[in-house]
Amino acid sequence: MALVAGRKTFAAGKTLLLRAGVWLGAEAAARGGNGARRFVSQRVLVESDVTAGIATIKFKNPPVNSLSLEFLTEFIICLEKLENDKTYRGLILTSDCPGIFSAGLDLREMCGKNLAHYAEYWRAIQETWLKLYLSNMVLVAAINGASPAGGCLMALSSDYRVLADNPRYRIGLNETLLGIVAPFWFKDVLVNTIGHRAAEHALQLGLLFQPTEALQVGMVDQVVPEDQVQSTALSVMTEWLAIPDHARQLTKSMMRKATADNLIKQREADIQNFVSFVSRDSIQKSLQVYLEKLKQKKH
Ligand SMILES: CC/C=C\C/C=C\C/C=C\CC/C=C/CC(=O)SCCNC(=O)CCNC(=O)[C@H](O)C(C)(C)COP(=O)(O)OP(=O)(O)OC[C@H]1O[C@@H](n2cnc3c(N)ncnc32)[C@H](O)[C@@H]1OP(=O)(O)O
């Protein structure tokens, strides 16, 4: 994906100049006297406390924070920017959309498009995951809403997960319910988190766990009342930031490298696999039926 250099025009006609991961263009940035900074992009809101070295990314892609190509592009830029700025040691991921952390991959990106689009989209998904999973920062997911499929993967790629205690906020890899298959690297991350047997069960049935179940199976680390998600994430972050960075980062890398390398060594094949899978007539049909069901739910 042309993220390192070039020009990208987003839907609202806003043009951003990107060079070596530095966002030079139409970005609103404000710095308060108390060390607080706020970067605003269309779909990703970044708030940061420079003094504490902690940034918060809020997903802001209503109605459901689906991972559209435009969202992913903005998200990767923000992430790179924070990663390259040594001010930040910790990052909290959360949502600005009430009741939804993220609905996962944007089904409209996987339906009725051409092969080149599917390939570009999948590359962006891979890139997002690799950047999140291998981040040097401490990542805490403050999960304040439903978190199926790709939304769950983003949470699982963090170092720690705090989930709001609301039975509507279900989390899991539900791909089989859509008639699709979770890619091997989604599976690997789930296995690393909840173990092989529980992952096999959850993946085959496409289980979406309510908060108490998610805690029990080990998919999240804490379940707290909804109004305490952000404060809990912040206190967990403080605990983690007490560990010297170099030791924690090397340890994280030691734990995660093999899983990431598994994808890195076969990225192109993984893209081809996705493209040929998703472009099958039967898969297109399943996805369209699923999208239609979602739309009709309201009526
Ligand atoms: C051997 C192996 C071989 C091959 C494998 C190779 C490759 C692997 C292939 C494929 C893997 C692809 C991986 C995919 C992972 C994913 O993330 S798939 C996405 C899964 N997501 C979901 O199932 C979530 C669906 N959404 C919901 O359940 C609900 O919307 C949600 C609980 C999030 C919110 O509910 P609610 O608040 O009631 O909102 P609505 O349902 O009314 O939705 C509002 C509008 O948003 C639209 N929408 C919802 N989700 C999505 C989405 N993911 N993408 C696009 N659009 C979405 C919904 O249709 C409504 O639209 P409308 O207002 O009606 O226009």
From TrEMBL:
Q: Tell me which CDD domains the record gives.
A: crotonase-like (cd06558)
Q: Report the principal subcellular site.
A: mitochondrion
Q: Please give the pathway this protein is involved in.
A: Lipid metabolism; fatty acid beta-oxidation
Gene Ontology cellular component annotations, sorted alphabetically: mitochondrial matrix
Family listed: Belongs to the enoyl-CoA hydratase/isomerase family.
Q: How does it assemble?
A: Homotrimer.
Q: What does this protein do?
A: Key enzyme of fatty acid beta-oxidation. Able to isomerize both 3-cis (3Z) and 3-trans (3E) double bonds into the 2-trans (2E) form in a range of enoyl-CoA species, with a preference for (3Z)-enoyl-CoAs over (3E)-enoyl-CoAs. The catalytic efficiency of this enzyme is not affected by the fatty acyl chain length.
Question: What is the name of the protein in this document?
Answer: Enoyl-CoA delta isomerase 1, mitochondrial
* Species annotation: Cavia porcellus
Which gene does this sequence derive from?
A: ECI1
